[in-house]
Design goal:
Distance between the termini: 36 Å
Order of helices and strands: HHHHHH
CATH architecture: Up-down Bundle
Shape: elongated
Number of domains: 1
Helix content: 55-70%
Strand content: under 5%
């Protein structure tokens, strides 16, 4: 029971740390709303519309796992992956991923955005974790979803991981085009030195 309570609590804290805290910090320091998805029909804003429902599936699974464990059989559990070592590994990597994301967000400073902000020229970050991965925050999120899948292996957690991987692949490519447009040659040189993911 403790494990189930802990997982749901962790995910709530994770959401606050990864999305709410940096967004509030940037808003207070710059006056800019870092959440820049709009209600238009562009590919960029479509990603914003579908990301939240897909991510919420993780919370739904965690709530069912805590309050209605037998209901997990509706999510097509992958029982052959229900190995204690994999579960321990899952818990370890979600914590490491959170630490990784926090460090990356600190290094982003006021450049943190949820979506692409076409109205501001953010600073190009190439140091710290950004010298290892061009998209360390997205990478950390994917590792988190992989960890949750190892903790509760079923079709829904797998779907969330796969769908998020596809969405992030599109999102980072849209961001790359934007960054090429505002940073030009320095960004192209950076792309040649550092991989999209690692």
């Amino acid at each position: 029971m403790f494990e189930k309570i802990y997982l749901l609590s962790f995910l709530v804290v994770y959401f606050l740390i990864v999305f709410v805290v940096p967004s509030v910090r940037v808003k207070r320091k710059t006056g800019i709303n870092p959440y820049v998805f709009k209600n238009t029909d562009t590919a960029h804003d479509f990603l914003g519309k579908v990301s939240a429902p897909i991510t919420s599936l993780i919370f739904i699974v965690s709530v069912v796992n805590l309050f209605y464990t037998t209901g997990l059989h509706y999510f097509a559990p992958l029982t052959w992956l229900g190995i204690p070592l994999l579960k321990i590994t899952g818990f370890a990597i979600i914590h490491l991923a959170l630490l990784w994301i926090v460090v990356a967000q600190i290094q982003m400073s006021n450049s943190w955005r949820v979506g692409i902000d076409h109205n501001a020229k953010t600073e190009l970050k190439t140091n710290g974790l950004f010298s290892v991965s061009r998209n360390p925050v997205f990478l950390g999120m994917l590792v988190t979803l992989a960890g949750v899948f190892l903790i509760i292996p079923n079709a829904i957690t797998l779907l969330t991981f796969v769908a998020s991987t596809l969405l992030f692949q599109v999102q980072v490519r849209l961001e790359e085009e934007y960054l090429k447009g505002i940073h030009g040659e320095p960004y192209r040189n950076y792309c040649q030195k550092v991989g999209r993911w690692f």
